[in-house]
């Protein structure tokens, strides 16, 4: 087992509590998507429990962007993680493809179906990188995971998004400032069916935009129209590079390209659910 990296005293209580929780599980399987939260949890689990008792599992499906898949592999190699990939088939579920407000429930159910055998083989607890800030939004996937026995150690140790990033920075993890990147299906408005072709269009457009240097973005899919979201401070740059941006987005097969003047808002498609509920 590796020697824990020292961190400032202000972060030590939270990190110590997380390590205590993980030791209580004894063996864990971490759902590892490569984002800041799951990467932090995978690193700490490996550092605390060791290679044999902490396994990072990446679920591979059309909803996982290729660059995220590649980064999972790169992080696992860089950090010496015990890394396994499993295929999930949420696209085979008509309820998932229908893309109603419970889409994430069906997605996480497919994840748990794939990861449970890995955990059972090792007598391990499945842990997800859910933090306390995630508890307030519409997150049916959390319920699906919890129903299958998954645990949320970051929540138990009182980690917020900001604290995850702060401690990750203190530990020297390069994921500390990695932009949030939800699954590709989150770009599709509820009520619009999710297809492999749709996800491929979104990924192609976002990949081309990243090649232009726009690293924080969402391409929201409205059939032949793409609605581009970037941070407010990037709006002027998008307009200044209009031709290149339009060409990049159209490489995904879109006919029309629009720019959202409200800027990037993670999870903003959930607003439609609140309107329906109201």
Poorly predicted regions are: 274-278
Strand line-up in the sheet with most strands: 3-2-1-4
Q: What Rg do the Cα atoms give?
A: 19 Å
% residues in beta strands? 5-15%
What is the fold's blueprint, element by element?
Elements: H1 12-25, E1 28-31, H2 36-49, E2 54-60, H3 66-79, E3 82-87, H4 94-98, H5 103-122, E4 125-127, H6 140-147, H7 153-156, H8 161-171, H9 196-211, E5 218-222, E6 225-229, H10 235-240, H11 242-250, E7 256-259, H12 271-277
Parallel strand pairs: 1-2, 1-4, 2-3, 6-7
Antiparallel strand pairs: 5-6
Helix pairs in contact: 1-2, 5-6, 9-11
General description of the model:
Helix 5 (103-122) runs parallel beside helix 6. The protein has helices spanning 12-25, 36-49, 66-79, 94-98, 103-122, 140-147, 153-156, 161-171, 196-211, 235-240, 242-250, 271-277, and strands at 28-31, 54-60, 82-87, 125-127, 218-222, 225-229, 256-259. With 278 residues, the chain is of the alpha/beta class. It is 46% helix and 12% strand. The relative contact order is 0.13. It is globular.
